[in-house]
Amino acid sequence: MKKLLCFLCFFIFLSPYVQSKKYPDPLYLNSDVVDMDDEKQQKKKKKKPEDERSLNEKTRSLLHLPPPNTLYYHNIDKSHTPVTMEDYYELSAEKLRKDIEIPVPQFNQDSEFNFPEPQFRVISYNTPPGQRNIDLTKIVSEHAVSSPAILSPDKTKMVYTRSFYYPQNSQTSSAAYLIPVKGSFQDAYDILYKTNIIEGSPESIFTVGMDWLEKTKFTTLYPLDFSKDSNKLAFKEKIGSNYAQTWVTNIVVYNFKNKTVKRLTAVREAIIYYCRQKKNIELKDYMWDIFPIGWDKNNPDRLIVYAYAYTNDRPLFLGTWSIDADENRSELISPNSTDANIDLNGFGLLEIKLQH
To answer: Which H or E element spans position 3?
Structure first.
């Protein structure tokens, strides 16, 4: 009885262990018994293969970035846009100017790349008579503006004026410069088109408005015309304020023979006297001025001016006057008419505007 009890106890003790074992299919009786617990442990022991990529490669893969050694072009013209830091350093490396190769553009026909050149023609400089004036609209921003050059009738010299702006006291002054014509030229067009102001003297032949300092005052010069013999050049001198109208206009004549400058103020005095005596008008009580027109064709040594007073809404005409270049005598040509025969002597260039 004791033996039976011992056998039963031993059987009960071993039964859980036996149930945990799985035996193969009977068809594979010769195969080894597979221990399931060992299989689980083996699976646990098996590790994933190590990722041998660098941290940079892993990050680029995670962010879906291109490989580091590949240069991608994002522009439609495939310009060299760097993606990696290596690309940037390579493209931004300093290069010597002699090592830079600039491709020469190739054209199949000359007509494929043709810029129209500006077209000019020679005209009488004082055209229309007395209407040319210096443009001061850009002088504040550019600090200097120049007049076009005028060529003498004998084609031996050119003159231009330059006005200067001084921001510290908002003052404008002017100077006249001479350019001797050197070399052989075919005609007036050739001289005006090819002669450069660099060939002129750096020193002016005379200046105005540079002898004193006065805030907001401007004094400008503008060539009016050469005399018929090319020995004299008349200028319009305008004096005024930057914030008001022109105060006074004068005729200034430069003599190339004796290199002298003469301001013809006698004609203004004659007009004041005439208006006081004949018209009972005291011009000092009104705004008035003269307008130089040009050299008199009938008297080549005299200059023609118009005079106007601003007494009402309409300017009052004060007559057509003339004065000789030596300021010996002023004359009233006509008290009511502006008909005057003006001689056009100097040459200038006029740009022909192209129609697009």
So the answer is: helix 2-20
Taking the C-alpha atoms of residue 156 and residue 182, their distance in angstroms, rounded to an integer, is 8
**pTM exceeding the 0.85 threshold for the entire prediction:** no
Quick check: bond before 128 cis, omega within 30? yes
Tokens standing for residue 249: 């206009």
Q: Which tokens go with 239?
A: 């004096």
Report the DSSP beta bridge partners of residue 287.
310
64 dihedral zone (left: phi>0; alpha: psi -120 to 50; beta): left
CA distance 323 to 243: 31
User: What distance in Å separates the CA atoms of residue 321 and residue 275, rounded to the nearest whole number?
Assistant: 13
How far, in Å, are 54, 70, 237, 264 from residue 51 at the CA level? 8, 22, 89, 99
pLDDT along the chain (356 residues), means of 10: 61 52 46 53 60 69 63 46 64 64 61 60 89 83 87 92 88 91 78 70 84 84 95 94 80 95 94 91 88 94 93 83 94 91 91 61
Q: What is the largest CA-CA distance in the chain?
A: 174
Here the tokens at position 51 are: 């990722």
Which amino acid belongs to residue 340?
A
